[in-house]
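Continuing the batch. This is chain 6 of the set; chains 1 through 5 are on the previous pages. Same settings as before, nothing changed between runs. Recording input and output for traceability.
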Amino acid sequence: MSTDRRDGVNRGLAPRTYGQGERPPRGDYARARQDFTCEQRWQDYTPAEHALYERLYARQLAQLQGLACPEFIDAVEQLGSPTHIPRLDTVSSRLERTSGWRLVGAPGLIPEEAFFALLAQRRFPVTDWMRRPEEFDYVVEPDIFHDLFGHVPLLFNPTFADYMQAYGMGGLKAARLGACELLARLYWYTVEFGLINTPAGLRAYGAGLLSSAGELHHAIVDPAPQRLAFQLERLMRTRYRIDRYQASYFVIDSFQQLFEATALDFAPLYERVRSLPALEADSILPDERHYAAARRCLSTSVITPG
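Output for chain 6:
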């Protein structure tokens, strides 16, 4: 990773990514500000894009019971009407009153330093473009549905909201230490693809899962992937892929556990991890705690949109 301090300044170019994949990021970076934020341009969304958002929302809402963590289910209605792409300012007003966070538009994936700086300020960047119809089942990089539906509901949870700010502040330090790739793995395996052990069984809290119909079921119910107890050093050693379902997921016991485990000074940890070989996503190590796939709880309860 380059330690050039200009990496957090928009130069009209798409950022690099650490996950393994074959497609470069997309988005119009030339229209973004220096901090990579941009206007949402809500009026430019087409009726077809609003309809696609509504279809995605309806599908994911129907998936949540028995697969998503209760904190997410409780907060998803804060996104507002599912019949159209929300205005970021409207959702921001609700979010700021609850946890002090605000939403800002972004052209897509942004460089790590710019991303960390926004999180440290309790500002969450939301990609402003909508996926294409042929990407209904899977989109490689975040679009507005992924960012809004997947990420924003848990920002209404005070503990998780504080974790996200702490992650941003830690990221700025990681950039100075040349450790952004290790911290990117933490984000990937928690914020994007994390599982939590609840009294009712394993549930998803990661946005990449909660905004994906196929991988949400795969992560909780399918016997194929590994489900490993959260262990910070192991997680930072583990590579990931951005263009296919994950081979391993990491399980926390609570958001408080996640916040406390990542509140430490990471500098010694970075040094230790650098001295060890990186692990492939499907690596199996001795003496790890594994979780079995959950049985899908079929419930007659209905989650209704707010």
